[in-house]
Amino acid sequence: MISINFIMLIALCGAISSAHPLEKRQDADSWRLYAYGDDINGLPIFYADGQAQLGDINLSNATNKFPVTISFGDSKTTWVAHPENTNTTTPAAFTTGGSVSPTNLLAIANTDSITSPVIFTTSNGTSGTDASAPSNTAGTSAPLTDVWTLYGNTVILNQTNADFYAQPTGKDGWYILLWGSTDQAAVGNTPVTVRTIAPASG
């Protein structure tokens, strides 16, 4: 005979599971990236002359800019960026480091700075940045590409104490995506979480 205590235990476990469901890991073939933070409510991340920028793409002063989708590369910690064609007559293509290519790898600049940009790089490690945008590339070494993890729908950077930041550009609604691993990285920048979930409409 099943005891009352056993039935209550099963009911309690079910209630806890319902209150705290496990977040499903990303399983789509490709996805977009969005940044969330203080007054940054799911701004889309896009390609801009080799940099990852976020917000209103029309505000960016980059020469070559377009939305991107992301997919897994050779491993689930290496991510490939694909252009979303917004112009039907001229298909979008990466021009990172002066090299035209149909895909790029998502990467982080490896610098000696407190913050460094999130960037796009070719398979041979050539990267590019928008010279007109705030610069964070002093002392640059080879970009790091094998650094990405998805925890549910949240992007985790596989670097010690690493976080993402949105650097203001002087134009409301347009930011540069940075990463850093010290508390000083937040000075003048807005901490953000990068996710694969678009903001709720309406």
**Record field, number of beta strands:** 13
Number of domains: 1
How many individual helices?
1
The whole-number mean of residue pLDDT values reads 82
Uncertain regions spanning at least 5 consecutive residues: 4-26, 129-139
CATH topology: Trefoil (Acidic Fibroblast Growth Factor, subunit A)
Largest sheet: 11 strands, antiparallel
Cα-based radius of gyration, to the nearest Å: 20 Å
Element-by-element helix/strand order: HEEEEEEEEEEEEE
The portion of residues forming beta strands comes to 35-45%
- At CATH's second level, what is the architecture? Trefoil
Shape: globular
Describe the structure.
This protein has one helix and 13 strands. With 202 residues, it is mostly beta strands. It has a single domain (23-195), classed as Trefoil (Trefoil (Acidic Fibroblast Growth Factor, subunit A)), CATH 2.80.10. The strands form two sheets. Strands 1, 2, 3, 4, 5, 6, 7, 8, 11, 12 and 13 form an eleven-stranded antiparallel sheet that branches. The chain has a two-stranded antiparallel sheet with strand order 9-10. The longest helix is centred in the N-terminal third of the chain and has 16 residues, at 4-19. The radius of gyration is 20 Å and the shape is globular. It starts with a helix and ends in a 7-residue tail after the last strand.
Keywords:
single chain; 202 residues; mainly beta; Trefoil (Acidic Fibroblast Growth Factor, subunit A); eleven-stranded antiparallel β-sheet; two-stranded antiparallel ribbon; 1 helix
